[in-house]
Structures are given as C-alpha cells and as structure tokens.
Amino acid sequence: MAVRSISAGVGGRKRRARIFCRRLLPFVAACPLACFPGSAAGQEANPEALRVFLDCAVCDFDYLRTEMTYVNYVRDRQDAEVHVLVTTEPTGGGGTAYTIDFIGLRQFAGATERLRYVAATTDTEEEVRRAFARRLQLVLARYVAATQLADDLTVVHRLAAGRRSAASPADDPWNFWVLHTRLSGSLNSEQSIKARSFFGSFSAERTTEDWKIRIGTNGSYNGTRFALGDGGRFSNTTRSFDVTGVVVGSLGSNWAWGIGGSATASTFVNQDLTLRIAPAVEYNIFPYAESTRRQLTFSYAIGANGFHYEEETIFGRTSEALMDHTVTVSFDMKQPWGQTGLALEAANFLRDAAKYRVVLNGTLDFRIVRGLSLTVSGSASRIRDQVFLPARGLTTEEILVQRRQLATDYRFNLALGVSLTFGSIYNNVVNSRFAGSSGGIIRTF
Description:
The chain is mostly beta strands. Helix content is about 15%, strand content about 45%. The strands form 2 sheets. A 12-stranded antiparallel β-sheet has the order 6-7-8-9-10-11-12-13-14-15-16-17, with no helix packed on it. Strands 2-1-3-4-5 form a 5-stranded mixed β-sheet, with helices on one face.
C-alpha cells in the first residue's frame, strides 16, 4: 500500500506539472510580443547608406550606432564598403592611444586613411567614446560624400576654448611622470571556509619619444582556513612582494636598449629574497611607429641573479648567485582578416647549460569565410631550470591548495574556438531593454 501510495502521489504531481506546462506555454510564446511590443531603438537599414564594418574590440558599439545613424553597420567585412580597423596601445601616462585605419573596399578600394587619437588616463568613459566618435565621423564623411546621402550631411565647426598645440616637457610640472597606487582587500566566510586577501601596489612611469622609465612595487597576502570533515583544520597562506625598475632608451626607429632590475620574495616559489639586474637590446624589423599593426622583434638579455631561499633546495642550496641569458623572438600582426601573435623565448644559466627553459606562445584569430572565424591560442614550455624547488616533499594538502610550485619538465595548454554567424548583413539596431539583468526571466541556482 505504501508503494502504491507513493507512486500515485508521484503520478499526480507529474499530471499537475504537465497541466501547468500546457497552460504556461501559450503565455511564454506570447511573452515576447506582450512584453516588447514596439520596434527596437535604433536605425532601420537604408540601402543607399555607406556600409561600414567596425573592427574594434574596445569600442562602445551601441553608443556609435546610436550617435551615427547615417551609415549601415554590417557584421562581415565582405559586405562592407569601408573597413574601420581600430588598434590600441597604452601610453606612458597610463592612457590609451587609438590608431584608426579606414580601409576602402568595393568602389572605395585603395582609398585608405589613418587617424590617431590619445585618451588620457583621467578621461571618463563618456569623454573617451564621445571624442572617438567625433574623429570617426570626420573621416567617414569623406566616404559618405561619395554616396547619395551626401546632400543630407552638414559639417559644423566648434572652436574649443583655449585651443593650443600639444604640451612639451617644459609645460608639465610633473615632467611627464605619472603615478599609480592601489590598495584592496577582501574577506569571505562560509561555514567551513574562511578567506582573506590583501593587495597593494605603487608605480611611477615616464614615457617620451626617446625614453621609457617605470618603477613599481606590489605585495599580496592570501590566507584561507578550512574546517575538515574529521574536525581538524587546515590553513593555507601565501605571500609575495616585489620591487621592479625598467629603463628603456631609443636607438632610432628600429633599435632599443634597456636595463631592468628587481627584488622579489614569494612563498609559492620558495624565495625569501631574489635580486636581479639585466641589460638588454632589441631590434624591430619594422619601425616602432608601426607597432599597432605589426611587429617582429629580436631581443637579447643577460642577467645576474642572487637567490636566497626559504628552505633548502633539491640541489642542497639555501642561497646562490647565477648568471643567465635570454633570447626572444616575437611577432605580432593585426590585419583585416584578423590578428596573430607568436613568441619564442629560450633561456639558460651560463654556468650550467643543462638548466634551461624554452617557451613558445601563440594566438590566432582568423576569419575563414564570411561569418566563420577560427580562434586558436596555446603555449608549450620545456622546463629544466627550477632551481628553487624545496628538498622536502610537499604534503597532500600543499599540493591540493597549490601552496608551492610543483616540479615539472613541461607545461602545455591549448584552446580552440570556432564561431559561425549568419543571417541579416545589417547590424544597426540598438535595443537596451532588460540589458541590466534577466529580471527573473533567467535564473540560476
């Protein structure tokens, strides 16, 4: 009787669930029409408007589509008449330099332009996107002027108050020095886990056409306490601290020299204190002025290192001095078809060539055909230079919580991704409804 009663109860719940779903289904099907009756905000596609493919990973696309409604935004480069390729790189003052390349396609083939815009580190997001949009419109006006919408555009000039030429070091009381500081901390607690972490950093940077100087320091503390099932407790604490300095000088459009130094301490790699100084030289096949689009560099560094370990190492050392040298070849390129990067680094200790490391890193983001893209990234390392490994074996707990670096002869990772997009070629409409949250429509537990 108990079994039949339970079965009947379960069957009843299933029947009620099916009835509930049947009643809910018409409401769910009608919800998009009932909740979103109007057309989406934004611009309808005009077949006469200039077709633009915006290739930018950092742009506020919704803002541009809302502010610039006189062009058609397309999802694929092959449908465009103008390909706008935006690349960025950090400036010495902590800002961002935008390089905007306008590549004419179809009837505009061969009509290319380049524009550069520098956003200061103190600019707000609104100031950056507004200034970027103004510069984008200035150049796009040239292409729009050759379309049937030319008569609909008017150029308006507003002279900014106090306009003057760019600042020189003599105009700057800080002499182009920029300072950054950061402090942060967190506390997390559950019934069986309590964690706390603290982080602090400070840096000073100065960048000009001929010099790049950076001095910085940061430290971190992470502590976690676990309540184990047998009533015991386990604590995991890691600490790290470093002070670094780099000076880089220009040797023309293709050569550069540099010298760097550091003092570091880290429980993870058994280093109570490590001191390093390393001069280096670099050659770029392409002029540094083209660095946002392509770079092929060869560099060589030779370094002196002084190690003082927390625990005796597998080689019976508590401290030692070692010389090393490093050769690095790096290639980076961003083109209309996508972007790629590849770097090969080889290093070894001078007095013992058997202690070495070879690292290969690569990324590729490639548009195969219209709407189909392939993304590949990976790295492979041959590791034979872990002179810091402690002689004692690690406990099971230390291994599980990754308190210490483990011995390894290699490190490898690979990531593959394919994306396929098809449908309408236009990408003009902006619809921000329910953009902030799912509003209860989607819920995860």
